[in-house]
Specification:
By secondary structure, the protein is mainly beta. The strands form three sheets. A seven-stranded antiparallel beta sheet has the order 2-1-5-8-9-4-3. Strands 11-10-12 form a three-stranded antiparallel beta sheet, with no helix packed on it.
Length: about 200
């Protein structure tokens, strides 16, 4: 199967934030969908390897900041390529707090939603959270970024300064050096599987 066919689905890109015992954290997700309007509920899929995932499991609430087409690659690096377990992701970031006490981003975003978890479904590598929207606001009229737009206009092309033997993640650009890529390899930056890597030519 050509895994690139999956890129043609209409994903957005979002910053998912949580708070627990005074610690703020967040990560990049690409799966947030409204499933009902009455009650107003959304689905969010979160990789279990993300520190934010466990915070949501324990607290039962989160915020979603909707990223825009003017978002910078540095924003994706900040929220997606490092762990909140060892990094304070709020450092140097402009944010506000919603009524639920959780931060949301006020720059490079056009809206935020606050939500309370109703149920959790184990999907193996991810958990699917069904949540009721408790608050939300429009922050700008900038268009929401899609995964396709990110791939074409925001993510830089990988640097080709020296000839390396290995595999490159087609999602975030991480390079695995070596002759063979383990079948169970998971990208340490974006948490995508080995099927999203291609050989460096």
């Amino acid at each position: 199967m050509d895994q690139k066919a999956m890129y043609h689905l209409t994903y957005g890109l979002f910053i998912l934030t949580a708070e627990e015992a005074g610690k703020d954290n967040g990560c990049i997700v690409n799966t947030v969908s409204q499933v009902t309007t009455s009650p107003n509920r959304i689905l969010v899929a979160v990789n279990k390897g993300n520190y934010t995932h466990n915070m949501i499991v324990r607290t039962g609430q989160f915020n979603v900041s909707v990223l825009t087409e003017d978002s910078r690659f540095a924003t994706y690096q900040h929220w997606g390529f490092q762990s909140g377990a060892t990094t304070d992701k709020t450092e140097g970031i402009t944010f506000a707090r919603a009524e639920n006490g959780i931060i949301y981003l006020t720059e490079e975003t056009n809206a935020y939603l606050s939500a309370r978890v109703v149920s959790m479904t184990d999907l193996g590598t991810h958990t699917l959270f069904l949540a009721e929207v408790t608050e939300g606001a429009v922050l700008s009229e900038q268009p929401s970024v899609t995964y396709s737009y990110y791939q074409k206009h925001i993510k830089p092309a990988p640097a080709r300064t020296e000839k390396k033997k290995g595999f490159i993640c087609t999602v975030c650009g991480y390079i695995y050096e070596g002759d063979t890529l383990p079948e169970d390899f998971i990208c340490p930056w974006c948490k995508h599987p080995a099927s999203d890597f291609k050989p460096i030519e």
